[in-house]
Known about the structure:
It is built from 4 helices and 29 strands. The strands form 9 sheets. Strands 10-11-13-19-15 form a 5-stranded mixed β-sheet, with no helix packed on it. By secondary structure, it is mostly beta strands.
Amino acid sequence: MKKIYKIFALIFVLSALITLMAACKEEPTYSDYTVTVVDGLGSPLDDVIVKFVDENNESKTRVTDKDGSAVLKNTLDGNYKVFVEQGFSDAIITQNEYALSESNKSIKIIARNGSKTVNIYGNVADDTFAYNLGVGNYNVVAEAGKTSYFVFYANTNGVYKVSFSSSDSNMTVGYYGIPMFVQSTHCGDGEYDGNSFELIIQDTATPYVIGLNCMNSCEAELVIERTGDAPFDPDYAPWTQIEKEAEIEKCVIDPGVTLVDFDVSDPTLSVSLGDDGFYYTADGKLVYIRITSNGVKYLETASLAYLAGFVSDQVGMNIGGYIYDENGEFVEKRNYNLMIEDYMEFCDSTYGVVPLTEELAECVKLHGESTGWWNPTAGNYLFGTDPIVHNNAWLFLCMLEA
C-alpha cells in the first residue's frame, strides 16, 4: 500500500512540475517592424521595395509610402534580414542589406535621390554626388566622418551667406569650387571661421560646390541666404560692340610692289595720322595693317581675323579691352570683333592688309595694353629678348612698302 502512495505522490510531483514549466513558458509576442528610406536632405523616398526575411527564410515584401516608410505589421518578434531595391523610386541604392531584431525594430536608411543629385569630380572619391540647392533652409542628415556635398545655383547675382546649425560642435561648412573640379579645402575669399562664409556671385550660370563636414552623425540645418547686392565688377559688365566707321575702298597692292613688316626695333621710324584718316611714316609711306594674313614675326600663326574667331571655329576671343577715365573710373568694355569682320572684305588679296585707320589703331592699342603684348612683365609679352622701340610696339602687325 505504501508503494501505491509513493507512486501517486511521484505522479503528483511530476504533474506539478509540468504545470509549472508550462506556466513559465513565454507566450509569443508580435510587433511592427519599420524601414524608413530618406535622402540626404531628410526627404522621404517612396516606391522603394523592402523585403523582410525571417529566421525561417520566409519573406514578405512591402513598398515605402509617401512618408518613406515600409512596415511589416503585427509580425512575430525575432530577427529579420532586410533587403532594399530601387523599384519605381528615385532612390539609388548602394547598400541593399540591413538587419532588424527584437531590440531594434526600426531603421532609417539614407539613400541617394537620383532626381535631386549630380555627380561631382576632383579631390573626392569616385561616385561622389551632390544635391542641387537654391536659396533656403535645408535639413541635412549627416553621417559621421563624411562630407555632404551640395551644388548651389543662384537665381540672381548678389552676396550670399552660407551657414549651418547642428549638435555637432566640430562640424564645418566650406566652399569647394565647381562640380567638375572639387577642391580638398575651402577655397573662398574673405573671412572664414568654418561656421559660415560668403559668396559674391556675379555670374548666375556658375555652380558652387558647398561641403558640410560631419564628425558625428546628426541632423543639421544648412542655410543659404542672399544678404545683399553684388558690388560692381567690370569683368561682368556688357561689351560695347564697335563697328567700322571709316570710309575706305578695297585695298589693292599693285603688282611689283613688295610690302615688308614694320620694324619695331628701328628708332628712326615713327608714324602719325594723316588728314585723310590713314597713318603714314615720317617720310610719307602709307602704313598697312594685317587683317587676314599671318606670318608676322611676333605672332606667326595668328591674324586679327583669326584671333577674333573668323578663321577657325576652335579659336575666338574678344579683341579689345576696358576703358577708364582720367580718374581711373571704369567707362566701358569695347569689343572690336565686328569691326575686324567688316574690314576683312576690304583686304588686299595678296597681303591681307588694309591701310591703318584711327579706329584700327585704337583697337590694337587697347587690346595690346589689356593683354600685355608689349609689357615685359606680362605672361603674354610678345617680343622676347628683342630690343624694341616701346612706343612703336603696337605697330608690329603693320607693313610698309619696301
